[in-house]
Structure prediction request, 283 residues.
Amino acid sequence: MLFITDETIDRFIKEDIPYIDLTTHVLDIGNRIGSITFTSRQNAVISGTDEVKRIFEKLGIKINSIIPSGTAVNAGDVFISAQGTVESLHMAWKVCMNILEYCSGIATRTRKLVETAKKINSRIEVVTTRKIFPGTKELSIKAAMDGGALPHRLGLSETILIFEQHMTFLGGIDGLLSKLDDIKTRAYEKKITVEAKCREEAIKLSRSCVDAIQFDKISPKELGEIVYDIRNINPAITLIGTGGINADNIGEYAATGVDVINTTWVYFGKPADIGVNMEVSKI
Prediction:
């Protein structure tokens, strides 16, 4: 479970309701009792119900039924049913629908990638990059996890990942390799990952003390050949494929023999199609 603070939940509500729901107020219907249901219009992996539950609780809405985040549903399935004042239901409506649609879109795309990759290699892991639209990180990461992936890096403070841009200031790959022992000494408890842009660099790195090599935008055919060579040199090193990996090509990348597939694709796409219905309560 990813921890999301009460302050964040309050901010979600406050963004949509800075003061009052003016429409409901002037219609003078706020104190009436109604019911609300959320229905998936497509086969999907639902994400965001944990946050919806907390929003409902803050607004005094009684939940009749709700499914856990990460649950797969079919088109037509009702996955949330609740009851409350019309004022509270309208305050919750759009913010909850937005969370559910965007998060479920990410979770659904993620599940598709994970299932496709694991059919080819049951031990492979799918992880997601930190190329997330600013301000949406918590929900985006949680949605990807609901789909079966893990975050590659939560931020710059978490892991040591050396890019070409870092090596520019070290004298290239050879300059980096000359300093690796010192780098290891400065971060004993951390693993070191280095991004390689070609076979020559990957071979050099596989003979060093790095823990993982990441390959960016290398074709599946070429990557498979590089992976084969590296396994013969250093079978224990972790190999990561990244760059342009999506639903159309993830099978090819999973077949290369890498241990991890790193992708941004899950974060960018259509939200899930979710319907909301409100009725006058029968109770």
